[in-house]
Task: inverse folding
DNA sequence: ACTAATTATGTAACTGATTACACAAATGTA
DNA sequence: TACATTTGTGTAATCAGTTACATAATTAGT
């Protein structure tokens, strides 16, 4: 399969499908070799039944990892071909108890030889290969159960995207973005308050000239996130992390985290010992971001903001 | 997948199918992650077209290893979604030349990032596994192309069956089988001749008491094959291999080969230097069996049989 | 004891591929 | 030049699974 080597790993799904098909194609012909009138797709169901037990459709489905309609259809076909008999459960009217018929039991004996030969052939291939397909599949099953391909891709996407993000110091030309980004989320969840207007309309005089600073996150050179560090006049805290805002259009690029970390670094560089912040518990992603940054919840302190219902701090060292 | 470990390697087809499905399921959601309205199954076709070239349906199919109707349908869908444009070839009215539209070209750019992330994620899984799925698939593709699973199973079947075959010396109770098995093939392809009746009706006096012998192949203790070694009165040859017959019901169990080898061993044990046989070229499987046993064609010698049109010999040493 | 939730099953529609077939256009050959 | 063969494409049917939905029987909760 020349093509796959050209395309690369992204095509692993297609490649798997094609190998599956190649292997599957021969399966039907293999049954012919043993003169058993048997469809390969029946095999997993047959395998469960082969020792003579009675099972419900659902229990077979669970055992072999198929959906129940699939088993239902397979059983119908096997009944039609005389391999299986159905029986209503006396004590539970929903249950359809299925088991091998005499013919089915007979086939189970015949199939033993085939079983040995196919297993032998597969093991022969496995032994001729340097890389063990059987074990590799098993590992993939495990790894994908631990973390799905989707989530893995998502993480790679996030990392790649966050590499495109630049964190830069505030400049007057970002004044508009600073206000707009904050106004967007504040007025979405709450109402703009007096203190908001003061800070957002006068970033320079209110924040920067008071010993604070603002960082801006650029994505494709567009400001998509902002965060301020306010100098506090408090014996317990040096700075407050505030006015953190990320554009909804730039979500999923880890921008909040990058901004938060950059602000923390700045606070450290400025000799800060303890950071403070206020937020609201309805802002779940924000709260979880603060946790991720290391902030912990602390007891009440008076706040100029109505919307503040949670306070957090972070010890720097 | 507990079940597969219980069933063993025979279920490798099912196991492959399920992994394929798991991987495939996420594929659609991954495209959503990048806000491209794109179906995963389009990808191989898209990949071929992405550099802006024009291709026919068949050439794409060949390149990506799909059937042409599959590509035909995919192209129809992509046209409907505006990713692809069709154009009749001026010089060849059968050809449907397809290429990416402006929208398709645009998507090709967007997809680059996704491509990188998916490749990264797959490589991450690959690196976390001890057994390399990608390389294992590649090896299976190669090994199955060399010799299909069907043929491998067939070979295992043959070996197992031939282990059930016993080669035993002639006894009077096999007289009937000796005649019947030979009569069966002779009268199927030719006509019983005088010499046949003589030998088959009087195995003891004609063959065994003349310094020859007969071996019988038993399968489930039933005689299913016979072969005679006739003492020859000839300066060139010691023995003639003759009256080899295997029941059609017992075909594919390697019985002819086992009988032939056993006869050769006997001839050697009796101090023979050269074996002779006569046959007819319309008996292709027989001729190829004799070749496999080491016999080579030799020039004419008078024969009592009308049907003989080829003669062969084997030097023993 | 009655209603709500859960469980067991079956049916229908869909999916992404295939093979079989049909047909037109181009090419090869006598 | 006429006819057979090959090539390119599309449509229909099939395949082995899926999800969505419907229905009946059982179990749980009040």
Result:
């Amino acid at each position: 399969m020349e093509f796959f080597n050209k395309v690369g790993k992204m095509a692993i799904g297609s490649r798997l499908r094609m190998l599956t098909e190649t292997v599957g194609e021969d399966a039907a012909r293999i049954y012919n070799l043993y003169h058993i009138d048997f469809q390969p797709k029946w095999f997993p169901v047959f395998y469960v039944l082969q020792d003579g037990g009675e099972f419900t459709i659902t229990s077979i489905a669970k055992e072999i990892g198929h959906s129940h309609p699939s088993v239902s259809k397979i059983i119908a076909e096997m009944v039609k071909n005389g391999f299986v008999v159905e029986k209503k459960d006396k004590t539970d009217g929903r249950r359809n108890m299925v088991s091998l018929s005499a013919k089915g039991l007979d086939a189970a004996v015949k199939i033993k030889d085939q079983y040995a030969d196919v297993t032998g052939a597969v093991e022969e291939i496995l032994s001729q290969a340097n890389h063990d397909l059987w074990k590799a599949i098993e590992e993939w099953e495990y790894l994908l159960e631990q973390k799905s391909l989707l989530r893995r891709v998502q993480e790679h996407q996030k990392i790649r995207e966050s590499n495109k993000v630049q964190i830069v110091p505030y400049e007057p030309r970002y004044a508009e973005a600073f206000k707009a980004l904050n106004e967007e989320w504040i007025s979405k969840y709450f109402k703009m308050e007096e203190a908001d207007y003061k800070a957002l309309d006068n970033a320079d005089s209110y924040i920067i000239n008071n010993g604070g600073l603002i960082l801006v996150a650029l994505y494709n050179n567009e400001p998509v996130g902002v965060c301020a560090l306010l100098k506090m006049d408090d014996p317990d805290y040096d700075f407050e992390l505030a006015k953190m805002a990320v554009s909804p259009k730039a979500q999923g690029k880890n921008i909040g985290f990058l901004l938060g970390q950059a602000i923390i670094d700045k606070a450290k560089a400025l000799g800060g010992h303890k950071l403070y912040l206020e937020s609201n518990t309805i802002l779940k992603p924000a709260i979880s971001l603060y946790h991720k940054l290391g902030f912990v919840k602390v007891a009440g302190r008076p706040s100029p903001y109505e919307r503040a219902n949670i306070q957090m701090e972070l010890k720097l060292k």
In short: The two ends of chain B are 57 Å apart (CA to CA).
